[in-house]
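Hi support team,

I've been running sequence recovery on a batch of backbones for a student project. Most finish fine, but this one hangs at about 90% for roughly twenty minutes before it completes. I'm not sure whether the input is malformed or the queue is just slow. I've pasted the structure tokens below so you can try to reproduce it. Let me know if you need the job ID as well.

Thanks,
M.K.
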């Protein structure tokens, strides 16, 4: 038994949904595109699972968060795929791939062949067993990667009202789930090996802000240690978490978020891998010219950093999906993927965004005892990363723009003094202008190629005036 398609997307997550929409926008013909997913539902916005999905009231449920609502685009229900002649093969895994023959073999025994394959298999959650601890299959131990996990987590939360939870891991899943558990009136202790939460991205100072906020909401932190074993009752439920530092925490439930591994297994030995993912070029094309990779599984060249990276965030999944469709359907009109890394999170009433890279010296701005603050990262004389908590839309756009511009920074003290205003000012200047340098005395042009000094002066003066007004009104201390 077999079917043939021009385009096959392997995986039915975020990247698959955004790629499908782009295929339709670019005029894919009826019957040309097939999506194969081992999940039983059409592509959805995975970030909802640790946020809206876990709310005790008015929780998000499908079909409300099918892709592509997360980017304010159309919501692609199963009906949409049908109407556009896209074959959605759900609840079906691919168990082997043969890139020479251009075929995939599914768990139902069907062989599906393609002209172009887009690998969008995402990643799987790491299990405790991979760290030498057993007990992951206990009914009150939860992971969170897909909708089945999320449904299970909701059941476990509801089974222990006002109970005690231990959250293992201080990364994205740990932080977002801990917040959701607190909102569900569960008492939370977070356990992780690092000195502070979100160690991959946050500095100690930034982490401290969030940890203090979490503590104010009743969360306990046990840092610098890992769990060594579980205690179970006679029904096999976990009753306690034993830590390597010798302490024991009584629990009603456990949530584990200790990182992921990209789903590359089908292609090992067939495609070049790098950074744990499938290595692709600027057109998102792998070492086999008929096979492309996007989303969490793809290791792609990040132009701004001059190196290959694999990102694990929804914005890169969405944008790489859009780009790959253009690269396949309109190769002559499509340039290389030029992506500025963007991460965000929303926890309790807090909300932050980060753009670029977190390397080099860190310059903080704003009021870390208030509701809004941020940081810049400066490496080799250029601003390469920016973080902002509690900003508004214009301010987030400003830090995104300034990071993309990578302006030369000569004086870190002056950058610190200007704070967010620096991003706002630089982002407001006309796009064609060269990067602005910050000096001790004033804002100066690096290379005054254009006669725009007067305009710049007006913009800066206006910005400062606007800022002064804004400052006075909002009482923010940038
Ligand atoms: P996925 O969305 O994981 O999709 C992969 C799909 O492939 C899945 O459907 C999987 O079942 C399927 N698949 C895998 N192997 C096979 C196979 N052999 N056969 C068939 N199907 C297969 N990022 C943010 O930037 N902000 C957030 O707030 C945020 N929140 C998150 C919350 C949660 C709970 C999780 C788990 C992730 C979150 N992320 C967030 C990360 C973001 O969701 C991922 O980066 C994004 O989903 C990656 O998209 P993808 O399509 O590459 O992979
Ligand atoms: P992560 O990489 O963000 O964090 C993993 C954490 O595991 C580390 O911070 C560390 O504290 C902990 N850890 C590692 N080994 C451990 C051990 N032996 N014992 C205890 N803790 C240990 O991964 P995650 O939090 O599991 O998130 C999974 C994926 O989901 C990631 O790809 C992440 O980017 C994505 N995600 C992203 C967002 C977002 O962007 N807002 C939200 C949720 C999930």
């Amino acid at each position: 038994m077999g079917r043939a398609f021009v385009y096959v997307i392997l995986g039915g997550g975020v990247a698959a949904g955004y790629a499908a929409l782009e295929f339709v926008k670019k005029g894919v013909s009826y019957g040309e595109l097939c999506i194969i997913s081992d999940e039983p539902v059409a592509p959805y916005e995975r970030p909802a699972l640790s946020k809206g999905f876990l709310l005790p009231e008015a929780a998000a449920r499908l079909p409300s968060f099918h892709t592509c609502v997360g980017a304010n685009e159309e919501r692609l229900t199963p009906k949409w795929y049908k109407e556009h002649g896209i074959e959605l093969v759900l609840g079906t895994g691919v168990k082997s791939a043969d890139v020479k023959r251009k075929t995939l073999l599914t768990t139902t025994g069907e062989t599906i062949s393609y002209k172009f394959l887009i690998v969008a298999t995402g990643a799987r959650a790491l299990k405790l067993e991979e760290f030498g601890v057993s007990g992951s299959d206990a009914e009150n131990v939860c992971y969170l990667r897909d909708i089945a996990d999320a449904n299970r987590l909701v059941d476990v939360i509801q089974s222990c009202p006002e109970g005690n939870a231990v959250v293992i891991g201080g990364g994205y899943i740990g932080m977002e789930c801990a917040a959701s558990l607190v909102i569900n009136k569960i008492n939370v202790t977070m356990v992780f090996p690092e000195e502070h939460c979100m160690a991959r991205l946050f500095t100690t100072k930034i982490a401290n802000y969030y940890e203090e906020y979490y503590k104010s909401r009743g969360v306990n932190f046990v840092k610098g240690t890992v769990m060594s074993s579980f205690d179970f009752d006679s029904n096999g439920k976990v009753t306690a978490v034993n830590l390597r530092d010798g302490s024991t925490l009584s629990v009603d439930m456990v949530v584990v978020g200790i990182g992921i591994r990209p789903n590359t297994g089908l292609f090992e030995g067939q495609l070049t891998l790098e950074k744990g993912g499938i290595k692709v070029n600027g057109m998102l094309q792998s070492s086999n010219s008929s096979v492309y990779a996007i989303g969490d599984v793809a290791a792609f060249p990040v132009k701004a950093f001059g190196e290959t990276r694999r990102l694990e965030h929804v914005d890169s999944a969405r944008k790489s999906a859009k780009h790959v469709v253009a690269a396949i359907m309109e190769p002559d009109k499509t340039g290389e993927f030029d992506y500025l890394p963007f991460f965000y999170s929303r926890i309790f009433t807090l909300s932050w965004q980060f753009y670029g890279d977190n390397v080099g010296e860190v310059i903080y701005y704003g009021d870390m005892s208030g509701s809004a603050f941020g940081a810049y990262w400066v490496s080799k004389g250029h601003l390469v990363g920016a973080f902002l908590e509690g900003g508004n839309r214009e301010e987030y756009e400003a830090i995104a723009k300034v990071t993309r511009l990578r302006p030369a920074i000569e004086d870190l003290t002056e950058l610190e003094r200007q704070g967010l205003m620096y991003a706002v000012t630089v982002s407001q200047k006309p796009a064609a202008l060269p990067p602005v340098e910050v000096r001790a005395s004033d804002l100066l042009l690096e290379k005054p190629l254009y006669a725009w000094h007067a305009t710049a002066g007006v913009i800066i003066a206006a910005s400062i005036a606007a800022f002064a007004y804004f400052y006075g009104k909002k009482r923010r201390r940038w």
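--
Follow-up from support: It reproduced on our side and the slowdown came from queue contention, not your input. The domain at 128-258 is CATH 3.50.50.60 (FAD/NAD(P)-binding domain). No action needed from you.
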